[in-house]
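Proteins fold reproducibly. Look at a sample protein:
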Amino acid sequence: MAQEYKLKGLSSLDLVPGEKREVEVEGIEGGKVLLCNVGGKTTAIGSKCTHYGAPLVKGILTGDGRITCPWHGACFGASNGDIENAPAIDALPSFEISEKDGSVYVSGEQDSFKGSRRKPNIRITKTSGAEKVVIVGGGSGAIGTLEALRENGFKGSITMISSEGYLPIDRTKLSKALIDDPSKIALRDEAWFEDGSVALVNDEVTDVDFDGKKVSTKEGSSFPYTKLVLATGGTPRMLPLPGFKELGNIFVLRTVSHVKDILKAIGSKNKKIVIIGSSFIGMEVANAVGKENDVTVIGQEKRPLERVMGEEVGKIFQSSLEKNGIKFHMEAGVKEAAPSESDPTNVGAIKLNDGTVLEADLVVLGAGVSPATTFLKENNSVELQKDGSLKTDEHFAVTGVKDVYAVGDIATYPYHGPGGDGAFTRIEHWNVAQNAGRSAAAHILDPSVPPKSFIPIFWSALGSQLRYCGNTPNGWDDLVLKGQPEEGKFVAYYTKGETVVAVGTMQIDPVMVQASELMRVGQMPSKSELQNGVDILGLSVLA
């Protein structure tokens, strides 16, 4: 039951427009609220981001009433706490606020003040109507779709088909922390889906009859749909080289079972681990296992992550991991995997094209992923792109077929962020998948609603936390680097002409989320302005 509580040290609502303030709630240990003044009206909401608990007072409050987390870009309505952007799947509580007798009071339930979390209301007693949504996949895009459907009033049936064998998880923690217990990183428990009347099916989809509107599975089941959402994610790439298919202790990383296998091969510690691939998965795994093992990263580029971040910034990441003892072989090509002398069934070394031999107790492949769409390869009703993805519109509706959506790693969609100009691009980010799922759900509920654009955001554990926003489907031609790069503390502005198309940061929060909000409303400064000393944290994001 809601009760009234006094706010500590506050005699009046004296916030000015654009101001936010964290205030303690008297009588509740650990209880706090965030006060936000937007357009002259002050509201009270939860003080901590529901994603990983960041203090929102350190985030960004915009003129159009959005409060964005300083870490990973989760965004909420400042007036009501509703979700605006991923990766948060829980909203913030909002509280009634009043002034009387020289004090300020808020009304709400004690647990809401302490927990700073409001789960979406997806509960329905029973489904109704003829609508049947089938979601194929169990990741970020799937959870974003089904929760957005239910919390916005969808009463039809929802079936989620996933072959992973566990409930949806926070997949980002697999490569960043090598967590092998799905219950520790589960996004929701089974009771949650039961409350929402969501049917969970542990099976693999093998075919789709787009004309007859039904999907078929490996176990022989068939599921009819009125709307189909494909959210199958990515399949890790293997290397078509000698030894990689035949030898054991060579691993990819995408699922909990992959993490279990890797940790089993590592055992206690002090193993020789070779990681092939110097992009995000490879670098995150190296960072996670490097302190207790002998780790070597092999990359084709001059510097890690060079394709996305550039050589100059890639050097920063390499130096950061080298401080933890991780070794690098860059501009290197792999020739083969050689067997172990003690156990010829397992890998014992990786041979490079230049003759270098790297001893290995185990090998982890971080060679990227391909869209998980092989079940559609022979389907004449849908056209796969060259990379195996599905082309969609701004609502993530698949082109050429009716009532079908594709979200996440398998979707190539028109990007309208800075420098995008509607170029079709495929983005493998957790946030993008969830936001795409919410966009698809909005279109299913009301096709007349215009698409809601969002700026892609991702983060990575590379010694320190990398934050990144934007995208470069048309490339970038210059880099404005500020801060102390040699100390791993920097802001990197990626530009195309005068337009800032992407921003990467380390140890300078909340610059990245400020940049993402400025990009969203078309107010990001130009390259020349940044070179002349403009500080984006000194700018207001106007309505």
Notes: The mean pLDDT is 97. Residues 242 and 312 are 34 Å apart (CA to CA). The first helix runs from residue 110 to 115. DSSP finds eleven helices and 36 strands in the chain.
